[in-house]
Amino acid sequence: MNAPLHREIPQAVLDSAKTLERVSSQWDGDIVRQLTDYIAIPAKSPSFDADWSQHGHLETVLRNAAAWVEAQKVEGLTLEIVRLPNRTPVLFFEIPATKAGSTQSVLMYGHLDKQPEFSGWRNDLGPWTPKYEDGKLYGRGGADDGYAVYASIAAVQALKAQNTPHPRIVGLIETCEESGSYDLLPYVDALRTRLGDVALVICLDSGAGNYDQLWLTTSLRGMASGTLKVEILTEGVHSGDASGLVPSSFRIMRQVLDRLEDSKSGRLLPASFHCEVPADRLQQARATAAILGEEVYKRFPWAHYDCEGSTQFALPTTTDPVQALINRTWTPTLSVTGAEGFPSLQDAGNVLRPYTAFKLSLRLPPLVDAASAVEELKTLLEDNAPYKAKVTFSPGSAATGWNAPETAPWFERALNAASQAHFGAPVGYIGQGGTIPLMNMLSQGFPSAQMMVCGVLGPRSNAHGPNEFLHVPYAKRLTAAVAEVMAQMP
Fold first, then answer.
1. pLDDT tens digit string along 352-411?
2. Distance CA 107, CA 81 (A)
3. Using alpha carbons only, what angle is made at residue 111 by residues 106 and 112, rounded to the nearest 5 degrees?
4. H-run or E-run covering 312
5. CA nearest neighbour of 83 among 163, 190, 9, 181
6. Which of 246, 440, 459, 467 could bridge 242 with an S-S bond, Cβ 3.0-4.6 Å?
7. How many angstroms separate the CA atoms of 244 and 352, rounded?
8. By the 8 A CB rule, do 293 and 226 touch?
9. What pTM was computed for the model?
10. Contact yes or no for 173/109 (Cβ under 8 A)
């Protein structure tokens, strides 16, 4: 693979004002409407809709996106919905290079599958009832990240509108990301020759520290998930008759989880689940903390209550902005995201339950191998169960995290130029606590490629939770910035 060329790139490749004007007009006139229709379709990822194929929602959003892309009539663009047996489909498009001598490709990535509904939406909002209010488009999946395919094509159109030479561009839009992208690697392998020599990956499935500048994601945590189940009885029994003699499955669950996590501090106990934070990431965290300050932790919807005439808020694990950034990007953490074996409160009688099951989500530092962590996790949780209870851990999706490659000089200049042009501020660098399985795959497959991992998931956008929104003004500027960076690729 050819190494990236390190040479000076002219800054005025595009007319930035015209670029933003065109992109903004397209968002206002068309893309917001497309995403409004998209949000209304419950295209849940396969992990949350076992009958996804029969329901057809993923097929609908994929076909809608494909029809829109084709309707743009981008010069030279060819498009295909690719299907492998027993796998979710992907959308693949190709646009030939117009830059003389260009032999490398830009890969644009996004996904169209969504997280499930979740509870707690504002009374006038809902996951499948889109609403546009004060520049924010509310609803599930618009920001995470149904907008990506539309923004990608709009960025290409901005280049075409100014007759700006560009490299070959390919697009890969999947429908399995929220399930861990377990279908994606077979497609990458099947399409590898058509992807070409990828020198730049543009992934619009990430976050932003604020809405005031372009943000480049520098790392992503990995993930290991699964269901931990503790069984002590074959059926429920009267708690007055059995408690004190039959151990509670919930108490056993607590003991088992104590092997994994210090419940007082939240620190995960196995040393192998931790890794050293690279020096450059620490330096970037300090710079980002100086920009964001208390907003690093204040942006979350903390529970609060009135106490003695003042409002008390729940507290984060730390109020040090630097440590807060490290905690959410390079520290392994455990979350219990679901439970089974519990009746609802109104139906909970005096019964000792036969079992307790938790769905666990373990976020891993970017440099920790997920497969090894899953294997260790299963042994740790299952061996030598208290009271010889039946304890089983059934692994779910897992993905190793990602640490960005060294930034090439041309790429750094292009990012800063794009951020200055469209935000009036330099690019910011930030790690993200979430997982995008594709990024590690692509870094391994294309080790010389630069990775423009960005997104619209800024403060309070709340992907996966209630009241998720897409910040449209930011999305417009991000789209324009993507066009600027592609224009400056050597």
1. 999 999 999 999 999 999 999 999 999 999 999 999 999 999 999 999 999 999 999 999
2. 16
3. 140
4. strand 310-313
5. 190
6. 246
7. 10
8. no
9. 0.90
10. yes
